[in-house]
Specification:
The chain is α/β, with parallel strands linked by helices. It has 26 helices and 17 strands. Helix 7 links the parallel strand 2 and strand 3. The N terminus is likely disordered.
Amino acid sequence: MGIILETHLMSHYQAGPLLSQIQFPRDMREKFKIEDLPQISDEVRQYIIDVISEIGNSHFGASLGVVELTVALHYIFNTPDDQLVWDVGHQAYGHKILTGRREVFHTNRTKGGISGFPKRSESEYDAFGVGHSSTSISAALGMAIASQYRGEHHRQHIAVIGDGAMTAGLAFEGLENAGSQNANILVILNDNNMSIDPNIGALRDYLTKITTSHTFNFVRSEIRELFEKAGKLGSATKEFLEHTEQGLKWILMKNSNLFESLHFRYFWPVDGHDVVGLAKTLRDLKDIPGPKLLHVMTKKWKGYKYSEEGNETTWHAPGVFNKETGEILKSASTTPQPPKYQDVFGNTIVELAEKNDKIMGITPAMPSGSSMNIMMRAMPERSFDVGIAEQHAVTFSAGLATQGMIPFCNIYSSFMQRAYDQVIHDVALQNLNVVFCLDRGGFVGADGATHHGAYDLAYMRCIPNMIVSAPMNESELRNLMYTAQQDNMGPFSIRYPRGNGVMVDWRTPFELIEIGTGRCITEGDEVAILSIGHPGNFVQKALSELEKEGIKPAHYDMRFVKPLDEKLLHWVFQNFKRIITIEDGCIMGGMGSAVLEFMADNNYSAEVIRLGIPDKYLHHGTPAELYAECGFDVAGIVVSVRKLKTELL
């Protein structure tokens, strides 16, 4: 039972005296009393701090905030037979430490190590794989219905969902369906008013109203005392108090409780850091059938002084830090560094919006990650964080576009997958000028398969009316954004990678790019390399290596996957019989496929090697490690060119 992943790396981190005795949750249930849970919680929290402060490259605050909840859940429920779904996986570090992965926790999010998110292939305790948010209720309901069908009425199914994840439509779809079923499902709403950035929206305001009501909290505490006494007074008294509780909730909430209206038994806010109280509450809820929702109040970053006092967003994933002083350790550089692509976007949209009053900015809950926060500070009336609601972000943008606005809708590439129907139906079909800025195109590194932006070039290029582009550097990003906000451009997709670009002096003057035109970067002979986006920089470095051997391929930056530069491609196929295509997206259906289609449609014949992301899921590792694994890093490009050159001899 337990972890499937094997590793030879053993941890040098020391667990506390109680935690060191816990390999799996059954150890905690069998060896310790409920009074021991506070110390176990403290030791789990300290272990997270000890490891993450040294390895960096990991999330931090979210898991600190649910330590007590994690301990209580595994103590009360018979995991893994009782199934626990986390939403999202940022919260699951304590869960991993308690479920057989403490000794390998230091390999978190490194190549060959454990995933930073729950992953079914990693452990039987990970009931559902999680990366994107808001999936837990639907998944847990599916599990509960399956158990009900098989007559396994003893099994519990628990979805732990953050209040930020509750803003997505999928969460409400799951709630609505679950409320109409009689399945044994418990939804735990982890209410901390934070996702990565502070939560926004009407749901946030609604939850705040519940939890700050003085009358509500007074009555809640009085009823809690009565329940404690009821345990000594018999089942009839306890049943009477349960009915009284529901009646008081109905009166106090004026029959407007959102969750009760969806046919969930709603249990009012409890302290998520009182692990003993939580455990007792969860034990009581086990005996109540049907759909239930427990509202738990927690504090992200709980238990670490410097994260509690510091910048909220910074401590979501701070990197390496000194746990004694709270100092976040950044690698020092003596030379100026190129900016992140996201910051080029954030600054450029403000420049463009200052000149064009039609421009609006939209992001679904990622203002810091996308750098839309730059515009939100400069032009708050023209920039919008719509919460974790990608579908809404796209159709909201479409609505703006119908009124003559030019919305720049900034969504991570893998998050855009959640809004694909809206892109097709609400934007492209109506030929609306929405500019999709797809951040995190290509490999994202430690977040792994759930977050790699592998598919956008392929899934965007098959949509009619859509312009699909990718800049090779910061200047090209600026120019594509400048081009996209010209009159009557229609749907326009610009994708770029996570991380830094290549230009220190990146604030170049704007230049209009003719739609569907590539450019020759380096002239050459015998072998032509066609690249799209940032990997073109890998090609340039590879050419420097090959030049030492007297090999001089030509290099063309395509810039557009749709429409293709057909004039350029005609010239390439008429002059080269050896061609390499390079992209940091999926090979199937991507730019290389588009080139092969062009070749077939125009009756050309050439040997074409396509480099990109193969037809399989690549897991976590640094982008450099993953580029190498796929063979389109500098070394891989050199090898491919040498192979074609050898065939010519």
